[in-house]
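Notes on consecutive records. When two proteins share a document, each keeps its own sequence and its own token line. Never mix them. Below: protein one.
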Amino acid sequence: QVQLVESGGGLVQAGGSLRLSCAASGHTFSSYAMGWFRQAPGKEREFVAFINWGGDSARYADSVKGRFTISRDNAKNTVFLQMNSLKPEDTAVYYCNLGAFWGQGTQVIVSS
């Protein structure tokens, strides 16, 4: 059974930074791509960032390009999302994804 546990969310002022982490267990983590998604109140869940199994290829939603960076540490079965220059519109619950599996989410609130 795959388990994904996110952490690192919180309340931050606009312009600030947060680093999200997602720890994976129960799967051969290093063989699979990982992703981050988010869901704002009243909106559908949307793609944020993706990283390949080797960690050398990533892609981002246009809304976060240049501000967010996804990375992974396969030795620790963990994927990260460094979020800089945060904006109020980044407020959402952020979810880690591995294939058909999702974490429980971590709340990010950006105040103006």
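Protein two starts on the next line and is unrelated to protein one.
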Amino acid sequence: VQLQASGGGLVQAGGSLRLSCAASGRTFSSYVMGWCRQAPGKEREFVAVASPSAGSTSYTDSVKGRYTISRDNAKNTVCLQMNSLKPEDTAVYYCVSYGPRAYWGQGTLVTVSS
């Protein structure tokens, strides 16, 4: 399974970024997809997930109302739209394919300046 994340970068507080993740190697539409992040010196934390049909999504409290996860099963991609970014959102963001075994992408760095 390969997960290729992109879209990270440097943005000012209040700005927006859109992360994308291209998946291959398993039946994409069968698995829950999500995003996690790891800030410098902190544990990796859950950010958002979308059910296989994208009919159900869930977010960690700190990003609710600001982030939106979406997926396109025809293109095997999952995206994370991040608005109203804050300096505390600075982290490496990882795409995750959940299942009996979870797979992680290589991560993309998001830096939010104050």
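For the record: The first strand starts at residue 2 and ends at 6.
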